[in-house]
# Entry
Amino acid sequence: MSRVRITLSINGESHELEIEPHWTLLHVLRDEIGLMGSKENCLEAECGVCTVLLDGKAVNSCILLAALCPGREIVTIEGFGNPEHLHPLQHAFVAHGAVQCGYCIPGMILTAQSFLDEIGDRRPSREEIREAISGTLCRCTGYQKIVDAIAAHAAGRGGKRAQAHVC
Amino acid sequence: MCANRMTVVGQRLERLDGAVKATGRFVYGADFALLGTLHGKVLRSTIPHGRLIRIDTTRARALRGVRAVITSADVPTTHYGNAIKDQTVFATDTIRFVGHALAAVAADTIEIAEQALQAITVEAEPLPPLFDPEVATAPDAPLLHPDWQSYVALPVIAREGNIAGRSRMHYGDVDAAFARSYRVYEHRFTTALQHAGYTEPRAASAAWDSTGVLTVWSNGQLPFEVQTTLSDILQLPTSRIRVVVPGVGGGFGGKLRIGVEHFAALLARASGRPVKLITTSEEELIAAHPRQASIITLKTGVSNDGHILAREGNVLVDCGAYSGSGPGTGAVALQCLVGPYRTPNLRLQSLAVYTNKVPSGSFRAPSGPMANFAVESQMDMIARDLGIDPLEIRLRNVVQEGDLGPAGEVLTSVSVEECLRRAADRIGWHQHTPGRGKGIACSWWMTTGGSSGVFIKLNSDGTVALNSGAVELGTGALSGAAQILAEELGLGLEDVRISTVDTQHVPYDYGAQGSRTAFSVGNACRAAAASMRKQLFDVVAAQHGVSAEDLVLRDKCVIVGNKSIPLAEIARAQYTGGGLIAHGSALIPPPAYDSARVENHPLPVWNTPSFHAHAAEVGVDPETGEVTIYRYVVAQDVGFAINPASIEGQIEGGVSQGIGQALSEEIVYRDGHVLNANLTDYKMPTSLDVPEIESILVEYPSGAGPYGAKGVGEPPCIEPPATIANAIAAATGLWIQSLPITAEKVLLGMRHKGKQ
# Structure
């Protein structure tokens, strides 16, 4: 199969790539660029561990063709805070004990950010948070401390919308 | 002494690996790859039972980009296994389940490897399959392993034909007690195959160096078992096999036995290149190590006031095609079939049986939830029949301090009554909401023994490196052990650095399994800390002309009178002598027991048992049979809560898995094929399926655990199926005796009941 040249904007950086047309964004992120924070599991959009932000909205990168992504802003977990300077939402996850094995957590955090951006300044109910993250499977936590973390972060936003900031 | 201040243990501290995981920088086994790696894939059988005639790999080998193709002809004909060495890398002459490995390929890309699998032709002659474990135990059943007698097995395991393990517990005169019982109840329960559901698939990378040493990067729970299993498979001494575990994305027992490490190792040897394998969801559901399906019959005789007089029980666990963890799982079911109840006369038997299905493993509290579902459902049926409140009948029967356990061991630190009372109080046991029902269940579980060793090293900045052979699965158990180490050395938790497990560097550990990690590694940390303290105090005492007994450790310093000497300073000074290192180990001997009560049981007596009770309130939709859990309460005796937040996380996650087993999870077989080998149709609970879980941490200190701790990780998934079944029964009057309790079963049951 012939490769195609594309340019992807990932975490604010431009990446020139030659890809197979059928490659998924997840494959390109992990295996071509080496951004391993987007995780791999079911590869059919059931588990949510591959979630990234595409123009600010959470998407499953395992079923999204990379060839469809030029001209769009992609944010992965690597562009969303780092171990020295956690994003406040990441800090909430750590502080509330929402991280166990952690494999679902990058996807969970980006899903939560997309949801919080969508609802604006409003404080979401726990039920709304549960609905928002229901596409991401977590086998360790029973979701409770994840909901705690998102709720606490949402309450602490002080009426300001948290933006996914690019490091 | 610093140990009494308790500023680190007992605190809700952030786990050490939280930030690196939340930022996506943590490296898991599935993320690890060597430069130039090939990608491996396994060809798996599509028939459940057959005679393998020929595998033709010619076309696959000829494909561009294919670097190695291997079958049983290319690997040593050796057997491996946990209790019984009954398994080979590939099917040799007999195919025994759909998913059985037949060949493996390494290629430049995954796509080429997949094409190569398509290009392999397999010729096999179907044999009559055996799917029903009860049929498999019949004397005239065909043998699935005609050579079973030639297999090497642990001496404790009793085998016979299709029975891969038979264990018994018995005492008293059961028949006489049944004869004088007010009533005798007999019920049959069934439970389903359940996948452990870790979100990171099993993965491995392997490479051989020029001296013939193999390194495998694994995401397994037990690197030392991977090492010995590879040693069996490859016929190499263990010292030539190095197993590194970069990080694990959940295991829950499903990653105890070897996963794909052996395929990676063999393909790497055949190709001369590093090879990585990662399993698909389909492979996970047809060929991983799920929780066994089981059939349990339980017969209990009681007095007219509900006291248990005798119990007879039989449990059949379906091992699938190979024994896996089945013999041990069946045996441990016996302790669970007693439950935390005074049972004066007992006769229990477990059978672990081969069938033509997926070989099963050791999912969290392996047989706990199955046996508890039977015991606690029946307890409620008895209570209902005798007109006794379900809480009250339990309180009349539970074991108390100093009672004997089923193996004749003396039970200490017994807290089940308190757990029951506190769970009942929290849920408001005696208050009823119309249209809803409340259920309660209790259990006990072991803290698994086995040894732990740790090395600790004082770093030049005054921090301490903790080298343990126990893998951090995600539970936070290693952070818990680090809290203990920090407490003992006057450090903050953030001053402990946990190393990655590498069998070349870390001391042996029995491994991250059986609710033992924080307990056992924690004890080893205490021992290592004592040694480190002594070394530090000896150094400082000699330098300052004081007695070591006058010294204390506080805030990363040794305190000498009014002087504080930083550990960093001591560490740097000691570098001239090779630095300060210490070793600590722990092995708690099992309690004394009466061997006459137990036959062929690999875990005849439980170490440091924990006790717990769960209570739930549910509603059932009369139109659909759908169950909604409104409230869920857990009262669990943890002995001492090393990190209460981590323990709550264990409880919440364990209950969530238990809710899955109770209501929705089942690997569904028809004619030997899995019908739901994907995450769309294999239904694990989402955030919408799990209620808020109310945890009560009961602390009856143990004598053996660090600061009195008991094992924590497995118990939370034991009681949910029984608790929910009993709550459904309270709401509908209907006991569903088969897991999972799907809406379909509830609806059909309600309709059937309505017609009666």
User: Anything to note?
Assistant: Chain B has three domains: 2-27+452-586, 32-128+199-250+255-287, 293-448+593-755. The first strand of chain B starts at residue 38 and ends at 44. Chain B has a mean pLDDT of 97. Residues 131 and 671 of chain B are 8 Å apart (CA to CA).
